[in-house]
């Protein structure tokens, strides 16, 4: 199999980055008080747009937000995994419930934005007043996605189906890497010959373990950036040069308290090279 036939789909928050980009910006720029006050009253996506208005009202500019995001760490193993998979010819995409502004800023700062063919996330723009605006990927009022597993603003499963439809003629195989509840629906869309890489002891992993028979894809958990890199490159090389007989990995589902992550963290955006 040619490496171009391997599509690697990354979640962003707590997958590419070990932190949550929304919470990082809100906390570092001093708006945690407003977030705590508004959180019980709003869904995540409109709440993030409201928080950007709050930051704007407090005198924080779009450039302040960029600088805040640039100050956040990105593990060297993740950078290495991305650049190596790209160098091997894989088609890399981000499917995330964050937003274009946050994702592009982080990936560009660390020199890996050009490795991705597509950033599929909630649209973001800076308006005429200089305020960052965040919009839903799916408009729940005019075009609801109808998926009960996913937040109103984004069904990652439908996004994966769209990618699969364009890839079917080329018989591409998928590796999906994620951590949260929103990554479960797309994992269910994967087929035999595909792989899902859930972050151990996070909601996606716990949902998979609750009924692993629902998944057709082979499951390869990871629990550190180093393990993400090792596992991803092992799977990529396996797909490029498959062995004569590859045994099914027998993984253990050891349930633990799920880590609290917010589902609600993205319009398909071509990345300029």
Give a written overview of the molecule:
This protein has a single domain, classed as 3-Layer(aba) Sandwich (Rossmann fold), CATH 3.40.50.1000. It has 10 helices and 9 strands. The protein has helices at 21-28, 32-38, 44-57, 62-70, 76-87, 100-109, 156-167, 184-188, 203-210, 225-240; strands at 6-10, 91-99, 116-122, 124-126, 132-134, 173-178, 195-198, 218-219, 268-270. Strands 8-7-6-1-2-3-9 form a 7-stranded mixed beta sheet. It is globular, with a radius of gyration of 18 Å. Keywords: Hydrolase, Magnesium, Metal-binding.
Q: Key features?
A:
disordered C terminus; alpha/beta; seven-stranded mixed β-sheet; metal-binding; HAD_hydro_PyrdxlP_Pase-like; single chain; magnesium; two-stranded antiparallel ribbon; HAD_sf; 273 residues; HAD-like_sf; Rossmann fold
Q: What is shown here, in short?
A:
The protein has ten helices and nine strands.
